[in-house]
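Record type: monomer structure entry
Structure origin: computed from sequence
Chain ID: A
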Amino acid sequence: MLRRTQPGCVMLTTDAVGGVWRYCLEITQGFTARGAAVALVTMGPEPSESQRGEARGLGVRLIETGLPLDWLADRADDLRLAARELASIARQAGAETIQLHTPALVADADWPAPAIAMAHSCVGTWWRAVRGNTVLPADLAWRVDCVARGLAAADAVIAPSRGFAAALHAAYGTEWTIHAIPNGRRTTPLPRDPRPQALTAGRLWDEGKNIDMLDEAAGRLEFPVRAAGPVRGPNGASVACRHLTLLGSLDEAALAAEYARAALFVSTARYEPFGLAVLEAAQAGAALVLSDIPTFRELWDGTAVFVHPDDAAGLATGLRRLLRDPGRCAAFGAAARERSAEYDAERMVADTWSVHCNLWRARACRAA
């Protein structure tokens, strides 16, 4: 007879580069509140001291490995070795469920517990959205193969939106189910102090963010467009901006202050599986101007201004009209804030926890 109904220890992989870190902290906080011990295992570039402090504040075990992220690895063998090392860490930690934040690792190790693939993004869907074709260069083809095998091998797959789940099915097939669980954030926004300026935030260097188009639009405006985030990535990618006001990488408090001061938030992304910065801006009450892509339509239709991701002139016109009309801008901001309540961190945690518990109970029943 089962005495427990949920896993006692969960291992989460994470990285310190982008929104995966913030997502994992939300999940960690929710899982520990439900009585689970969490082993948080970092891959890729090491966390900052402030990130380490955040993890310590949640009372979790932080394990820094330096193992390569799927998009930074040089070859498939690097990912296979990384997967086996992670499986060993899971055994040592006593993990009863495992959540891997890339499907590319799942197929290449003997996991001691159910392995859940959380697909935050992938190079195959990124390439289709950004480059507009399915013919991959050799350096990406092997990565896509790793993702395909991982999706097929995972005990469960989670994606942060229905739109991205559909993109994964289009790229890799429909033989398996994807749990579409939108991201959520716990925030305490600062009081609004809107100024006639726009803000964007994220990995500015990522070609999928389409920052070149936003920079071109900013050059047509008499209003400042402020951009928070790095312009050079760990993979060597970079972007040069002539018209954006670059703020560099900001900590959570500084970014919250930017959200509070921005009359509107703009994202020109061609590829966005969810868009955590958009959610944070909406929670702060900023009006949203977004590229017209499936994910943004799914999440924000009826509450945002949508523009074509190739239309810099149209974007500049849309930004100007909103910035010149504070009342209309405030109305869009209020609508975005109301919609943001649907993307609640507790709901995200509860739905994700349900996936873990169902897998753990199924495994425990088979072993009984």
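Annotation 1: The chain has a mean pLDDT of 94.
Annotation 2: The radius of gyration is 20 Å.
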